[in-house]
Every structure is written in structure tokens, then in C-alpha cells.
Amino acid sequence: xxxxxxxxxxxxxxxxxxxxxxxxxxxxxxxxxxxxxxxxxxxxxxxxxxxxxxxxxxxxxxxxxxxxxxxxxxxxxxxxxxxxxxxxxxxxxxxxxxxxxxxxxxxxxxxxxxxxxxxxxxxxxxxxxxxxxxxxxxxxxxxxxxxxxxxxxxxxxxxxxxxxxxxxxxxxxxxxxxxxxxxxxxxxxxxxxxxxxxxxxxxxxxxxxxxxxxxxxxxxxxxxxxxxxxxxxxxxxxxxxxxxxxxxxxxxxxxxxxxxxxxxxxxxxxxxxxxxxxxxxxxxxxxxxxxxxxxxxxxxxxxxxxxxxxxxxxxxxxxxxxxxxxxxxxxxxxxxxxxxxxxxxxxxxxxxxxxxxxxxxxxxxxxxxxxxxxxxxxxxxxxxxxxxxxxxxxxxxxxxxxxxxxxxxxxxxxxxxxxxxxxxxxxxxxxxxxxxxxxxxxxxxxxxxxxxxxxxxxxxxxxxxxxxxxxxxxxxxxxxxxxxxxxxxxxxxxxxx
Length: 497
What we know:
Elements lengths: L1 H15 L11 E6 L14 H10 L4 E3 L5 E3 L2 E6 L5 E6 L13 H11 L6 H4 L4 E6 L2 E5 L7 H5 L9 H6 L13 E7 L3 E6 L12 E6 L3 H9 L5 E2 L7 H5 L4 E16 L9 H10 L2 H9 L3 E3 L22 H11 L9 E4 L2 H15 L6 E4 L2 H9 L5 E6 L4 H9 L15 H12 L3 H18 L2 E14 L2 E2 L15 E2 L1
Parallel strand pairs: 1-10, 1-11, 14-15, 14-16
Antiparallel strand pairs: 2-3, 4-5, 5-7, 6-7, 8-9, 9-10, 11-17, 12-16, 12-17, 13-17, 18-19
């Protein structure tokens, strides 16, 4: 009955969206996304769904290619000094911001210095100690020794470039983005959609698709139904339960991307009994991760045990708990010595898949005497609460471009208040991550990363659940669509066939 009602409600939504029907022509694209952030700025968030929007409006000195390698973007080229401390970037000339002003080195300096003042992106701005304009089209970045993470951080939304004049005027980039990107912002219809138009002066060539609407449709089945009905053209994060209907439709294409995103039950290690490693390990052992994968992702994911993705070199399972075992979970609780019923754990969720995962976990925890609860909230509230550390737990996921970046974001103490939401604060972990970042060879870096990963595994700051497949679906005649393993995609390169 509940399923039938959900489908009926979804159908009503489809029918009510006729005003937003995709055009028959080839000038329009409508994207359906699951979440709406309250922040369109480049530095006010660290959320993938908002990063998608940042990529439409902005560019950085670097970008990630389809093999996840950092390559020049606004920079035309760069050099690195022998000691690894001085990085010189030569800018493209003639690049225009959406307000018509020309990109110069002064814009780069102003943007990156401003970014360093924003706590939400601190993880991506600590790789450089100084930025200066050598001349109109040359930027020099200084680091404390060689830093292999710098180029990846320069490709992140935190370091996207804004016009200096607008920054100094106090322009509200959250309300009105203005960058050099392939699409110009038109309007934000809060709670519904954001509208864009192609940047005809884009330095990489004007997008073939001129009009872009980004719609917010939280419910997974609804996103699939509006695609099948022809009301939208591209769907982000197809619910695994809806795959079959899309795959059977010859007019649609399903893109299944092996993701580097690690999904987890984050635990706030500073809250109550969660500060005890035996409690955290007990929770980890109590969770049937295979059941989580089946229920939350319809089996389209790989169970995860390590605290970092296995996709990168330096990963190890050394130090991990033994896997799903109620008996072992009870042993960890006995070693802790308290009453499991006294453990306070509220699991925050922001979408359907996360809630399904949480429901499995709640059932598992009851088997060891822990009475957890589920709290559902919208993405903006979820991000705010967890960044401030006001949570005990939440279902989340994180993507990075390298192992160093992943560890720096999630477990380095400088990222507390940003991506480090378990709030792990360990000087030895910090030192090892920094040492890995400064390594000049892959062999040296890998050895250090294995050491720090083993240590973090043993500390069990969060419960790793799975690495999922990211599911995207779109009309079959939409061409040149490529999705990176971290979830990024470049709409400006797409066209209608």
C-alpha cells in the first residue's frame, strides 16, 4: 500500500511538471538532482551536489581529466622549482568573467587568499602558504616543501577563481555566481530549480546546449519517472530500485560508474561514549554491511571495511575490525564496560538511500543492546549540523581525487569543522598525512599511506559501509557524456546528437 501511494504521488509530480518539459529542440537541457544546497558559493560548502553547480559557473587553475589527473584549466602551463616550494602558473590570456572583465593574476590571488579565510573549505586551502601575482598573467604559489596534493586542491571548487573587483565590493556569490565557467547564472527558483544560459565567450568554446535548468527532485522514484516521461533529460543518482525500467527503455541510457566515494556511518568521536574506541568498534562489528548494500543500493556496491577507499594506492585493511559479528561486538562492549542502552546515537539522513541504510543499522544495533534513532533533514541543514559537530552520527559519503586528499579531508585535525566530521584529532595521524603529501616518489608515499591507514583503521573513527556505483541516466541522444569516478561531469562538453 505504501509503495502504491508513493508511486501515485510521484506520478502526480510528473504531471505537475509539464511547464518544465524538455524542449524538442537541441538548445535546452533539464537536469534532475536529488538535493538542493542553500549555498551556491565556491567556499561556503563542501558538498558534491553543490560542487556540480560550481563547475557550471567557475574554473580553477587546474581541473581533473577523465582519468582523475590534474591538468591545466585557467592556467596554460606551470613549473615547479627543484625544492618543490615554488609553483609558477602561466594564465590563459583573454579569458573573460561573466561580467565582461578579463581574468588576471590579481583575480587568482584575491580568490585564493579569500578562500583561506573560509572554514568550510579549509581542507583545500592549506596546501599553499602564499600566493602572489608576478605579472598580469603569472601567479606564483609557495608551499612548505613539495606537496603532491596541491594540484588536486587547485582543481577543487574551493580554489575556483572569482573577479577581484566583485570580491572587494562584497558581491553575494551565493545569490549570484559570477565566474569564467561554461554557463552563466540567470535565476534561482528556491525549492524548485536554477536556470543558466550558455557563456558564449567561454574560453574553451561556447557550449552547444544553450539553455540549462537544474531541477531539485528529492525522491528517487520521482526522478526516474520524470525522465521516462520525457520531462527531464539527465538524472543524477538514479535510485537503484528504479534501474530496470530505465535499462529496458531504448530511448534512455544508464551510466554505471564505479565510484571512489566511500559511504559510511560517521560517528562524532567527541560525543559521550562514542569517544571510546571499543564502543566504535562494537558498532562497526554489529553492522551487517552486506545487508546495508542490498537494502540501500539494491546490491550495487562493494562492502567496505577500511576507513579509506580501496581505489587508491596506500589502502590497507590492516587494523580493521573483524567484520560482521554480533558476538565480537558484544566483546568490545564488554571491554568498554558500560551499559549499551546508555549509548546515545541519532543517525541523521538526507535522502532515501541513506535512510534505508540507517534502518538496517538500527535493526543491527538492537541485537547488541544499542537503541539508536533516525533523524531525517534536508541537505542544507544536514551539512550545517554535521559541520558544527552537533551530531552523534550520520550516513554520509565522501569523494576525493587522491588518497592523500581523502585522508587530509577526513582525518587531519585541520579539517575539523569542514570534512573531518568524526572530529578525529591525533598528532601522529596529522604528521603521517603531511609526510605522505611531501613524498617525492610513489613508493615512498605509498609506504607512508599504508602506515597511517592502518593506524586510522585501528582507531575506527567511523563505520565504513560501502563503495557504491554512481548511477546516472539520460536520453540516448545526449552525446559526449562522461562522468568522473569522483562524480564530476562537464556539461559544457555535451551536445544533442
